Amino acid sequence: MADRPAKQMLSGRVYDELRDAILRGDFAPGAALKPQELASAHGVSLAVVREALVRLVGDGLASRLTNRGFAVPLQSDQRWQDLAEARRTVEVAMLRLAIERGDLDWEARVRAAHHKLARTPAHEPGSARVISAAWSRAHRDFHRALLDGSGNAVLLETFDRMWLAGELARRWAGRRGPARDHLAEHRGLEEAALARDADTAAALLEQHITQTAADLSGQADQQAVL
């Protein structure tokens, strides 16, 4: 159809706006995402909004409820525990491969990514609770740099999907959890990885991944996602 590219562009715009709004916390956990209201608010058709919502469901940023439409996921959703388990399984193995296979260029990328993360403000100006978009990008780039020394494109694509799916939990945990020394956590990961200490690096990454859903749920011994 001739109007398909235009519809895709509109859907992409609405997707971007809804994704950013959900991550900012404009919608409470469990809040309904009503297609008709969103279509009116964004000045687009119902079909365009539904397409954007289906993409959000695929990214783990929305839930599709039987006979009840769409909603923001709940903080207590089992998906965060399942995602944490998947990340501990996949990313720790990837880090071990990266330490084994990574070359000097990999070391330089890890150092550069950590340098940028350490110097990027974690919160939006004037807010001690809203995680800044720049810090979120730097955070993701550091974790990906740690793992890209594995040289395995399939595993890196898996990381990309899991990271986006967990972004909402990370934002929530950053607002709810007790103060954490993220600088020290990331510095420890960098130092262990570049020292080629696979056992220490793996243990630190597993702990790092586990902490966020513990922050999210308020139960320090509960396994979770970062």
From TrEMBL:
Record field: transmembrane: none
Protein species of origin: Pseudonocardia zijingensis
The keyword Plastid appears for this protein: no
Domain HTH gntR-type, chain residue ranges per copy: 8-75
Keywords: DNA-binding, Transcription, Transcription regulation
A Pfam family annotated for this UniProt entry: FCD
Name of this protein: GntR family transcriptional regulator
PROSITE patterns, per database record: HTH_GNTR
InterPro entries for this protein: GntR_C (IPR011711), TF_FadR/GntR_C (IPR008920), Tscrpt_reg_HTH_GntR (IPR000524), WH-like_DNA-bd_sf (IPR036388), WH_DNA-bd_sf (IPR036390)
